[in-house]
Amino acid sequence: MLLTAAVVSFVSTDAQAQLKVGGDPTTIDDGSILELEATDKAFVPPRMTSAQRDGIPTPLTGAIIYNTTLQCLQVNKGTPQNPVW
Prior knowledge:
Number of helices: 2
Number of strands: 5
Radius of gyration: 18 Å
Mean pLDDT: 88
């Protein structure tokens, strides 16, 4: 019964290629996959120390964190196997 409900829920869900959080959901830019809009809130990426960052097993290229040790945003410009922050 639970499996049937889960399958029906999944099948009946409308697949969306884009997601907008905040603002008017009908005015998402056609070039974005995710759009965040707010005038009273901030986007907060994951916050971690340099040691915690270095503990990520395979950080994707383009992964973004806020480094609390260095007090700055960092982006992995390397590869998952050889990250360059």
